[in-house]
Design a protein that fits this description.
globular, 4 helices, alpha+beta, seven-stranded antiparallel sheet
C-alpha cells in the first residue's frame, strides 16, 4: 500500500474487503502517462476492459469533480473524480450494482521517467463474488492498463 493515497472513510485498505495494488517503473515521462490516464474516452483503445466511457457534459478528459459512466468487468459504473492533481494523482469513487470502489492513481516522477501506482479498494456482494471466482483477475487487468499507460 502506498501511504500517499488519500482514502475516503470506509475505503482504506483496512476497512475494505478487497484491496488491489499495481506498480510499474517506466522511462515514459510523467506528462505522457498523465495524458493517457485522463483521456477517459480513449481508455478502450489502450485498456480492453473499459467500455462505453462517457463524461457528463461531454469531452474526452477527466477533470476535478468530473462525473462519468463506464463499464468494466461487465459492470456499469457511475464514477466521480475525487482527487485531481495534474501529472501527479487522480482518484475516483465508483458505484454500481453490488459494488463500491475507490480507484487511485499516482504518477511519481523519477530521474529516468516515472513510477505509476494504482490502488483500488472495493466492497459489495458483486465485488466479493468476483474476487472469489476470479481471485487475480483485477490485478492482471490493472497490470495491462498500467503497462499500456507506460507504452
Amino acid at each position: 500500500m502506498d501511504e500517499a493515497i488519500r482514502w475516503p472513510n470506509g475505503f482504506a485498505p483496512g476497512e475494505a474487503p478487497i484491496h488491489i495494488v499495481n506498480r510499474l517503473e517506466t522511462t515514459t515521462p510523467p506528462a505522457i502517462v498523465w495524458r493517457r490516464l485522463v483521456d477517459a474516452a480513449g481508455w478502450p483503445a489502450i485498456y480492453a476492459n473499459a467500455h462505453d466511457v462517457a463524461i457528463e457534459g461531454g469531452g474526452a478528459d477527466l477533470f476535478a469533480g468530473a462525473h462519468f459512466t463506464w463499464k468494466t468487468f461487465g459492470i456499469a459504473l457511475r464514477s466521480e473524480v475525487r482527487e485531481f492533481e495534474p501529472e501527479t494523482r487522480i482518484a475516483w469513487l465508483a458505484t454500481g450494482i453490488g459494488v463500491r470502489a475507490y480507484h487511485a492513481w499516482l504518477v511519481i516522477p523519477s530521474a529516468t521517467g516515472c513510477t505509476i501506482v494504482t490502488e483500488e479498494t472495493q466492497s459489495g456482494w458483486v465485488a466479493r463474488a468476483g474476487r472469489l471466482l476470479f481471485p487475480t483477475r483485477m490485478e492482471r487487468w490493472h497490470q495491462k492498463w498500467i503497462e499500456a499507460l507506460a507504452a
